Amino acid sequence: MGRGGTFRSAGAFRAPLPAVLAAALTVAGCTADGSRTARATSPSVANSPSFQVTSDVDLCVSIVSLWSREVLDGRGYGDYRSMGLSGGQYDILREVVDAARTARRQGKGTQYVGTLTERQAREGCVSPVPLRRARRGAVVMSGVGPVEPDGDTRPLDPPSVAPHVRSGPPARRSRRHRRTTAATLLAVAVLAGGALLYLTRPRPEPAPEPRFPSQTTSFRYLYMQVRDAGTTSAEFEFTMQAFTESDAPVTVLGISQPYAGLSLTSRPATPLRVNGGGSRKIAVTVQVTECGKVPRNAGLPFLDVTLRNTRAKEAHSYILGARYARDLSTALEVACSNGFR
Question: Is 302 or 133 the better-scoring residue by pLDDT?
Answer without folding.
Answer: 302
